[in-house]
Write a structure and sequence with these properties.
By secondary structure, the protein is of the alpha+beta class. The protein is built from twelve helices and 15 strands. It folds into two domains: about 250 residues, L-amino peptidase D-ALA esterase/amidase, CATH 3.60.70; about 120 residues, no CATH class. A hairpin with a 2-residue loop joins strand 2 and strand 3.
Length: about 375
């Protein structure tokens, strides 16, 4: 199926489990592809292939994907009658029917971005602890812990109708990556490997292609250039929309206390158990039955999100840890008020929460939030 034809130099198609870009005119490509990756001037195609299901897929193909990428490429090209010497490719578990194409034009400059993505199990923050070390052509585990699920990848293809210098082509990857991270920030995507917000996944891939012809090359793809702006806008929009389709991840869905708390080790069961242990006996069943009403209440989410943001500011050193008692008491009291509705009791909540503060570590911080929620629900109907 032809999805689109652009600037008389590019066609984007989808067939079965593959989305491929066919170049109708010469392009220079830079990519993270394991075969034919790097900087290339002689490719005719860039494609994104769904290699497996997102969870627990153990077919033999997975071994080929990880251990013999050339064999994998040859297998795909044989099936679709592509020339494997002329192709660069990316693999993913994301559904190709959820791919999003975004294009924008300024004067005679056109940028097209094509993204697929999934982040629910493999989202991470740059600098998170890693489990593997590559040496002598092999990967070895660096600890004995059970490995986390690695399903989840954001793959990005960007196409530009103008020639770029080699340095500018490299710079497009920086801009596109910043745009992807901005999309994750706006969706409040949590790292699954630390208590930080995610900046990507552990297996993200990218390929960028610019058209080659006799015209002065563009020399800037940063945020001050229109090229950088178009890359940023198209990639960010495409990433957000593909995550909405693949994971159901929308701003409305992310409006949740539980989702905001997940990066500190919380889940629904833990939250309900911990909060109920702090409630009056006659309120436990009522709370359990109405958990989602509290969990998704806008004022409660706002108060929890504000305290999490301030906790991050202390963790990053922007706010001194010496002001932690006042910050936590004040903004914890906002959580209590959001649930109880009794703003005239703010000073009472402030004073009571002072005794609960233990620190910014994930477990202590979670317990503080649980205490504030329980205090608010205990007060709500009194």
């Amino acid at each position: 199926m032809l999805l689109g034809k652009y600037y008389n130099g590019l066609e984007i198609h989808r067939k079965d489990k593959i989305i491929f870009a066919r170049f109708l005119s010469p392009h220079r490509i830079i990519s993270t592809c394991r075969v034919n990756g790097g900087l290339k001037n002689d490719l005719s195609m860039l494609f994104n292939h769904q290699s497996c299901e997102p969870c627990n897929h153990t077919i033999q193909t997975n071994r080929i994907i990880t251990q013999s990428p050339l064999e994998y490429l040859q297998m795909i090209c044989k099936k679709y009658d592509f020339d494997n010497d002329q192709c660069a490719f990316m693999g993913t578990a994301a559904n190709m029917n959820y791919a999003i194409i975004k294009d924008m034009t300024f004067r005679d400059l056109t940028v097209i971005s094509v993204c697929t993505g999934g982040v629910e199990t493999n989202a991470g923050r740059a600098g998170d602890p890693a489990n593997y070390f590559e040496s002598m052509g092999k990967f070895e585990k660096t600890d004995d812990s059970t490995p986390k699920l690695l399903e989840g990848t954001i793959n990005t293809m960007v196409f530009i109708n103008k020639p770029l210098t080699d340095g500018t082509l490299v710079r497009t990857i920086v801009t596109a990556t910043e745009a992807k991270t901005a999309a994750l920030q706006e969706l409040n995507v949590n790292s699954r490997y630390s208590d930080g917000l995610a900046t990507g996944t552990g297996t993200d891939q990218i390929g960028v292609a610019c058209q080659l012809f006799d015209e002065p090359q563009l020399t800037s793809a940063g945020k001050h250039s229109k090229l950088g702006e178009l890359i940023g806008k198209t990639v960010k929009q495409a990433v957000k929309q593909t995550l909405s389709l693949q994971n159901g991840m929308t701003p409305e869905r992310q409006r949740s206390v539980k989702i905001h708390m997940e990066r500190f080790g919380s889940d629904k069961k833990t939250m309900k158990n911990e909060i109920c242990s702090l409630l009056d006996d006659d309120k436990k069943e009522v709370f359990n039955n109405n958990f989602e009403m509290i969990n998704r209440d806008p004022l409660t989410v706002a108060a929890v999100a504000a305290l999490i943001h301030l906790r991050d500011k202390i963790s990053w050193g922007i706010l001194p840890e010496s002001c932690l008692p006042e910050v936590f008491s004040q903004y914890g009291a906002q959580i209590v008020v959001a649930i109880s509705g009794k703003i005239d009791r703010m000073s009472h909540y402030y004073n009571n929460l002072e005794t609960v503060i233990k620190g910014i570590e994930s477990s202590n911080f979670s317990k503080f939030i649980y205490n504030a929620i329980a205090m608010g629900f205990n007060e709500k109907w009194n």
